[in-house]
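so the lab meeting is tmrw and i was supposed to have these ready like two days ago... anyway. pasting both below. for each one the top line is the aa sequence and the line under it is the C-alpha cells. i havent really looked at them closely yet so no promises
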Amino acid sequence: MDKGYEKERFETLKIKASVAVKFRRFCKRMSRSQSMALLLMLDFFEDNGISPNESIGPKMQTLEALIKKRINGVIAIMKDIEKNQTKPTVAMMQSLFEELEPNKKPLILEKEIPIKKNEIRFQEKKHTNNEL
C-alpha cells in the first residue's frame, strides 16, 4: 500500500490499452504503484515548471548557454579587479616595504686579526739552568 494514501479510495481513469501497458511497465521499472508513479510525474512537471508538450532539450541548452555567459562575466570582473586594484596595491605595498627596510649591518663578534704565514705568535721561553 502507498504510505499516506491508505484510506483513500480508488478512481478509474480511461486510457488506451497500449498506453496502459506502457505505463504499467514504467511503474514496474520504478518499483512504484501506478498511483505513486503518476503522482511523482505530476510533481516533477509542476516543480520544474515544464509542460509534457515541451521538449526539455532546448531549455537545457539555453540554460547551459546562460550559465556560460555568466561565468564569462564573472571571469571578466575578476580580471578587471586584478588589473585595476590588486596589482597596483601590491606594487605600492612592495615599494613601501623596500624603502623602509633597514640596512643590514654585520654583527661585530670579535676582531679578526689576520695571521701571516710563517709568523710565530707564541714562542716557548727558554729556561736557563739557574732559573730552575
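ok protien two:
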Amino acid sequence: MAKIFSIQKKTDEHFVNLYEFDGINTKGHESHYMVATRARSKEQLKAVTHDYSAADAVVIYSIYNDQVVLVKQYRYPIDGAVYEFPAGLVEEGETLHEAAVREMKEETGLELKLLDVDPLYEKPRFTSVGMTDETNAMVYGYASGTISDAFAEPSEEIEIVLADRQEARRILEEENVALQTAYPLSRFVSDEAPFGFVQ
C-alpha cells in the first residue's frame, strides 16, 4: 500500500480546502497529489484520522404527493445547472437526521418526515474519491408543506422541482444530473414503490 510522507495545506477557506499529499506507492512511484476536502486542518483529514463514520454532508431523497423532490442548482465548476436532491453540510454537533430536516427546510421550505431504514442505506459514502475525501449520506422520507425559498441562503441559486416519473425520466435522459441523484432517481422511474429498494 502507498505511504504518505508529507501533507501541506495550500488554502485556508471556510467550506473547501486544498492539501498537497506527497507519497510513494509500492512500485516506488512518487506522487504529488492535490486533495480537495471539507477539513479545516490537517488533523481533520480522513487520511490522518482514518475515521470514515461521519458524513460531511447529507443528501435527501424525498417524495411529495407521489413526486420526487429535486433542486435545479447553478454550480460554478460547470457554469451551468445540475439536478440534485436537496442536500447540505452537516454542522458541528448536528446529527445526520437533524441536518436533513434543516437542509430540507432551508432549500425547499418543506417539512421532512424521515423514513426508518436499515443503517446500510444511510452509511456515509465517498463522492469523488479521486479528488476529495468528502462523504455524503443519503436519507429518505416524505416531504410536506408549502414550497418556499424564504429560508434559502443568498449564495445559492436553486429552483425547486417536483417530478413525476415521466419528468424524472426526461431529466435523466436530457439534463445534467448529479451522480448521487441519478441512481435513486432511476429507481424512482422504474420501481412501483418509491422506497422499495430501501425497505
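from a quick look at the 2nd one: The first helix runs from residue 46 to 49. The mean pLDDT is 95. will dig more after coffe
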